[in-house]
Amino acid sequence: MPSLISTVNALLAKSDRPAVRAFFLSMAALSIALILALYSGAAAQLGNLFLASASALTALVVAGWVAVTLVPTLAKRTPLRWIGYRMEYRITRYGWIYILGIVLVALAAINTGNNLLFLILASLIASILMSGILSSITLAGVELKLHLPEHIFAGQSVRASVELRNEKLTMPSFSLRVEAAKTKDQPAAAMLETPVYFPYLPRQQAVKQSVPLLFLQRGVYRQEAFKIVTRFPFGFLQKARRMDLATEALVYPEVAASSEFLEVLPGLQGAMESNAKGRGQDLYALRGYLPNDSARHVHWKASARFGALMVREFAREDDCRVLLVFDPQSPAAAALPPSSEKESFERAVTFCAALAWNFHERNALLEFRSAEASTPLAPASDNIFAVLRHLALVQPIAPNSRPELLNQLAADPESFKIIVTSQPRGSIPAELWNTSYIVFASDLSA
To answer: Which element (helix H / strand E) includes 233?
Structure first.
């Protein structure tokens, strides 16, 4: 008993008191109008026309008062958006079998005139009607949310969260399935290819289900609409409610170290070390010679002064500084690209993303440049996702359609550059070869 009282008190606390008061008042007034109408009929049969007319007129006045004063109050507080839900109906295989059984029972009832068969026929038809009503109640008041991870990489499985919330005050929902809805602009579903099943959804509560998602290619994936489907309670009808929930996912290129990347990496590291040595190092201190020291580092004047071999120590380089360049100019942008050239461009994008991620893991200072984007020199952890965001959306552009990025870089001989390009070898300015390590997409085998 105390639990029942607490439940009632909780419902009263959540309820809209003016709406509840208007509801009970309208029910009482309509009950009085019904009694007056019945009394009017009885008075008419007894021949008292004046009393019958007065009772009927009073009943109409009471019903009119309810319609004018109380019904608008209730309508304002009713979630009418549930009425406008777009429902899709489909009779299942079991439903067709059930309808066939109804037809057979109807033929037998008509031919025999048996009252029991008519009673059974009425019960069968009522079950179909109740199935439609209960499924509508199950779908009403259910809201959907799809939570995607902040960062998604191509070729890597991620966990998304599908959340259903039941906003009904009193009724739970049963046996719901969330699916991606197809549209005219998007004939195939881009996300949520596997349906997500919710067996039970309590009232005024939310339930989450985790679902794996896999995006094979970089770019933007969009899903304009979803469907909540149910066959509750008997499975005769499949009713679906369409929800326009525009969802977008930005998928970064794959950053895993591929065989192509591992083949190019040693040459790249060697070029960076050679460039660092060519720029020289600052003297830090002098110390005594050790057997594993190189003779090139012996300071002979200091050794003669101290009477022992002295070795120069150099100041450690502050940080690994990298200027990463992606050149989007490609023959693949001229007219409709052949599949081979397009694949070559995609390999270049993937390699550049893997290279940027490698410098991110090495805590390098990374600067990035492309035709339509650039990031300042900063720790790679600060700008890595800005780089990946650009690489996720970049498309090939035709040569000479804009001022060439490589010509602009050739005017900066001071910085060492790592350039990833889809252009042929003969198109690279000669000034870049001395201060750059260039990766050609054609050298990245499929």
So the answer is: none
Q: What is the pTM assigned to this prediction?
A: 0.66
Rg (CA), the chain: 38
pLDDT band at 336 (very low <50, low <70, confident <90, very high): very low
Does 328 lie in the same domain as 306? no
Of 226, 215, 207, 196, which is closest to residue 158 (Cα–Cα)?
215
What pLDDT is stored for residue 177 in this prediction?
A: 93
Indicate if 198 and 307 belong to the same structural domain. no
**3-class DSSP state for residue 170?**
coil
Taking only the tens place, the pLDDT of each residue in 284-294 is 567 787 766 66
Give the total number of structural domains in the chain. Answer: 4
What is d(CA 330, CA 345) in angstroms, rounded to the nearest whole number?
7
Residue with tokens 């009482």: 28
Q: For 18-169, where are the E strands, in sequence order?
A: 87-91, 142-147, 152-153, 158-166
* Same-domain status, 307 and 348: no
Question: 257 in a domain, yes or no?
Answer: no
Whether residues 246 and 100 share a domain: the answer is yes
pLDDT tens for residues 64-92? 888 778 777 766 655 545 454 567 888 88
Cβ contact 361:379 at 8 Å: no
Of the candidates 348, 18, 30, 125, the one whose C-alpha atom is nearest the C-alpha of residue 38 is 30
Q: What is the pLDDT, as a whole number, of residue 318? A: 46
Is residue 235 domain-resident? Answer: yes
- For the chain, the straight-line distance linking the first and the last C-alpha, in angstroms and rounded, comes to 73
- Residue 56 inside a domain? The answer is yes
pLDDT digits (tens, 9 = 90+) for 400-425: 655 566 666 666 666 677 888 877 77
Distance CA 153, CA 384 (A): 13
Residue 174, pLDDT > 90, answer: yes
* Residue 422, token pair as written in the block: 């889809």
Residues 188 and 88 in one domain: yes
CB neighbour list of residue 388: distance below 8 Å, 6 or more residues apart: 252, 253, 255, 353, 356, 357
